[in-house]
Design a protein that fits this description.
Length: about 210
């Protein structure tokens, strides 16, 4: 796969208190968020490399109305605990990006109500208007919002690269299985060092699988 920064953007998925912080709603359910916390820190290194190369940086947030009327089956049946504990309500700290993120003026933050960053959002119109054909992706969780977004990106013919250390999940087996699935048929899998070096160089050819 050929990587070029000419038409590339960084896509940082759901680096939110809910998923990455000890005081978030996921940790409150007894899940270990340490992998997601580490991934968020690494993702900020990727963002810094993108800023240095003047790449567009797009953050997503999973966020809902206070009555969860936009939550659909996910909030009603698949993960009803989230609505019961008031998770991810827009305008609350739980739904906000982690405090370490310092948004640049040119950065974009997109709210979403489903796992895919493409579903029902302004992401694709934004990418089209910016003439973006390549996405460098990190975020949480690997097996849900990251993988779903990456699969959707591939079906739309975006050249997609997933940066391994910038992704995190609540379970190591799901994380590894998702990385394997994405790299098999939907995206190139890069290390953080490889991604930052390619961004700094303006482009690089990676071996076909």
């Amino acid at each position: 796969m050929h990587f070029s920064t000419q038409h590339a953007a960084i896509l940082a998925i759901d680096l939110q208190r809910a998923f990455c912080c000890d005081d978030g709603s996921v940790a409150a359910q007894g899940r270990d968020v340490s992998s997601c916390r580490t991934a968020a820190d690494k993702c900020l290194e990727l963002v810094a490399a993108g800023h240095a190369a003047n790449l567009p940086v797009i953050y997503t947030r999973m966020c809902y109305r206070h009555d969860y009327a936009d939550g659909g089956l996910l909030m009603r049946e698949l993960r009803p605990t989230l609505s019961r504990i008031g998770a991810l309500r827009d305008g609350t700290p739980d739904a906000e990006l982690v405090p370490e993120i310092e948004l640049a003026v040119e950065d974009t933050v997109i709210g979403k109500q489903r796992y895919s960053a493409f579903y029902g959002t302004s992401l694709e119109p934004l990418l089209r208007s910016l003439k973006i054909d390549t996405l460098i992706v990190g975020g949480v969780t690997t097996s849900m919002c990251v993988e779903t977004t990456v699969r959707d990106a591939a079906q739309r013919d975006y050249r997609t690269f997933v940066v391994e250390e910038t992704c995190g999940d609540f379970a190591a087996d799901r994380h590894q299985a998702s990385l394997a699935a994405m790299s098999f048929g939907f995206a190139g899998l890069l290390s953080l060092d490889e991604a930052c070096a390619a961004i700094a160089a303006g482009g690089q050819d990676f071996p076909d699988r």
